[in-house]
């Protein structure tokens, strides 16, 4: 089963609503509307596909650990929604946590991350999707990771500037 990751901005009202009504998670993810938010801010989302685990590794140097806020792709925030854990996770982060995250991502240079890119190590650590040493012919996993890293930085900065929170959904 493919495990894909989507990041979506959400207002504090929406975040509270999801925490109170976790059964509405799917509706929120599928909803292109405002999810009952009078602030009327349309959400931003970023689909990082299968690169989430590789990015987690580059950001923290670990498969499932690391220090907040850079471990946000696999942990941290508050769990929300009714997703059986083996099928993924959904977690929400507050506007303040997003500001911290944006600052931390902004302080990271691509050069630092490139030093951590080691296909053999990624393979050994069992980093999803697991084809680091023998990628499909039409894919350059290294370039894909770094292009998404840039997207992630921009995305986090924009969400932080809006003063919004973040939903991280892997499933």
Q: Average the pLDDT over all residues and give the rounded result.
A: 90
Total beta strands: 5
- What's the number of helices? 7
Number of domains: 1
InterPro entries: DUF1877 (IPR015068), YfbM-like_sf (IPR035944)
Pfam families: DUF1877
Description:
- A five-stranded antiparallel β-sheet has the order 2-1-5-4-3.
- By secondary structure, the protein is an alpha+beta fold.
- It is globular.
- It has a single domain, classed as Hypothetical protein yfbM fold, CATH 3.40.1760.
- It has seven helices and five strands, in the order βααβαββααααβ.
What does the secondary structure layout of this molecule look like, with pairings?
Layout: E1 5-10, H1 12-20, H2 25-30, E2 45-49, H3 52-60, E3 78-79, E4 89-93, H4 95-106, H5 110-116, H6 119-124, H7 141-162, E5 165-170
Antiparallel strand pairs: 1-2, 1-5, 3-4, 4-5
Helix pairs in contact: 4-7
Short summary of the structure?
The chain is of the alpha+beta class.
What are its keywords?
Hypothetical protein yfbM fold, YfbM-like_sf, 14% strand, five-stranded antiparallel sheet, DUF1877, alpha+beta, 171 residues, 7 helices, globular
């Amino acid at each position: 089963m493919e495990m894909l990751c989507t990041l979506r901005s959400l207002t504090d009202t929406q975040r509270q609503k999801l925490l109170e009504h976790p059964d509405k998670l799917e509706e929120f993810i599928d909803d292109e509307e405002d999810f009952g938010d009078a602030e009327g801010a349309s959400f931003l989302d970023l689909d990082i596909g299968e690169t989430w685990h590789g990015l987690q590794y580059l950001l923290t140097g670990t498969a499932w650990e690391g220090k907040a806020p850079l471990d946000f792709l696999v942990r941290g925030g508050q769990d929300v929604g009714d997703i059986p854990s083996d099928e993924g996770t959904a977690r929400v982060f507050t506007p303040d946590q997003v500001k911290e995250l944006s600052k931390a991502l902004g302080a990271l240079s691509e050069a630092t991350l490139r030093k951590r890119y080691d296909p053999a190590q990624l393979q050994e650590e069992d980093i999803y999707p697991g084809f680091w040493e023998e990628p499909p012919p039409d894919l350059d996993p290294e370039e894909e990771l770094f292009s998404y890293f840039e997207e992630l930085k921009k995305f986090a900065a924009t969400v932080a500037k809006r003063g919004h929170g973040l939903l991280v959904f892997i499933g």
